[in-house]
Amino acid sequence: MFYRDCYVSYENSRITIGNHGIRRVLRVEDRALISESLSGSQTVWKNPAAEPRLALAERYVREGTQPRVTFRLDDRARRSAAALVADVIWDDGDCAVHYAFRVYPDIPFIVTEGEIRVQGAAKADAADVVDGVGLPWGHYRLQSDKLVDQSDQHDTYILTHKQLLYKNEPLFSDGNLFTITDVISGDGILLVRDAPTTLSSTEKIGQGLCVERMQSAVLTGAGVSDVTDGDMHIYGASIGVGRAADLPALYRKLYRAEYAGESRGLYSLSNNWGDRGEDAVMGENFVMGEIDTAARTGIDVVQLDDGWQKGMTTGSTRNPNGVWEGYYAFMPDYWSHDPDKFPNGLKGVADYARVRGVKIGLWFSPDSSNDFANWERDVDTLMHYYETYGFSTFKLDGVKLRTPLGKSRYMAFLEAVYRRSGGVVCVNQDITAHARNGIVCEKPYGTLFVENRYSDLHSYYPHRTLRNVWMLSRYFPLRRFQFEVLNLRRSGHVYQGDPLAPGLYSIDYTFASVMLANPLIWMETQHLPEPDRAILENTITLWKSVREEFFAADTQPIGDEPDGVSWTGFEIRGQHHWLLLFRELTESADHSFGIPGNFEKVAGSDGFTYADGIAHADNVRSWALLREV
Predict the structure, then answer these.
(1) Distance between CA atoms of 402 and 436, rounded to whole angstroms?
(2) Residue 251: enclosing H or E segment and its boundaries?
(3) What is the pTM of this model?
(4) What are the E-state strand segments in 92-149?
């Protein structure tokens, strides 16, 4: 079967799948798949003495069950680009194991996915192989990139470790992204565990990369230990080949194919929670004030956070005895609107926003109790607010993925929401706490709410937010994320004497630092000082003129890692070649980025120029958006 430059075939018990940049051969044996070879334009990754086995079927399916191999074209109901897929299914009537191998046109990666169906409880090995390749003899360097979420307690989301491989040293490295480079040829292979982080995985051991005597590289931890009745997702993998230096850009291209993005493209969204008024400020008059400010400023969505609903969460300012799950048991009408705060219901708010050209979003917490036993009821709740009032953006918070069953039900909830709304509903998945899917697991579903930061709590620094955007942009398209812009004039006393205090920044600078993602206006916007509101309006107008191109473009970090005192930025290649540059608090008035071209400034701080690879700024904390001419 063929699709553009992609192909797949099944002959002599071998599946061959690939495109012009990659070719993979998998041998089908009794209840197992053997990773026989993986080829790029130069190197063949193969070792007959160490061929990884994908063998979950041996654990769950009766001996003698024959596999069914089929091919299809699939775009996940338009949530991803179209891919050619090879399905391998063992089904004995009671249990089934399903592997799917996906290849996209012009992208040298093969994606492995899977599910199992089990009747009765079964126990798997936490070190079950997810995927892997053989390694020919060579001189290899390994870079392990460990992803970190639960950002309420963490503020570095990629931890990197490098080492040379040694043939007598068994190696295990936990994490998500692993690059093996042949130091002689410069060719490399990138193995990605499409799974939650170590912090958030349903597995607690055996999740990472195993390299045995430099003969094979195997991703372990399928995420299906202690499974019970039902369909369970297997943690997947993405394996790509190419020049090692090109692999991050190639993976960003794969990610853009996997996450097609929301129908609106990049969008701005305001949420009142950043000013710490919490649910105490929520009410009809307050929300209408937020809508008015959004309409004036150009913000796309006003999102009502916790407090719009009748039920109360733990720590509510109204009642500290609320709950963080078991909502329907706590109060059958938990997710109806609070009649005291919204005496005219939510229809009045919806109509008010519609007239002013602003969309409304809601905070919502899917019920994690009993492994999301109420997931279908949660779907009906969200669909009620979408179908009745047109609310189409939902922040999903409080999620706790404790078991494979809970994860599968949560994914069924997301899938149903997207299918029932025809892809119109957008979810913002909060990854700030508890066990959640994170960045590389189940990519097609919604944007990611990355971090809660508050100036009152001394946890917000603009340079740290810029740093996190910059670091993530090495591997991931920024259109997947939401990053925050705070009211910089609040809580100045907390930062007294601090040269990196938020109050020393301009709001156009902080907006620019997140505008390649989806800007989260993390404040009560109606209380933003008028000078800052006017600056924000002008900056959003600029951003709207370029956001469609930035949504589709490839972005990579340039300059130094932001630390508050560096020159840093992003290179953006779309319809045009762009640079987004930042001068932090540094005494140096110029800096070489080593990017040839002739650029002109489109916007930014006064005194910022660029020529012959050198950026100049006359004042500190400058930023500039430049376009090549």
Answers:
(1) 9
(2) helix 247-258
(3) 0.96
(4) 96-103, 109-118, 129-134, 140-147
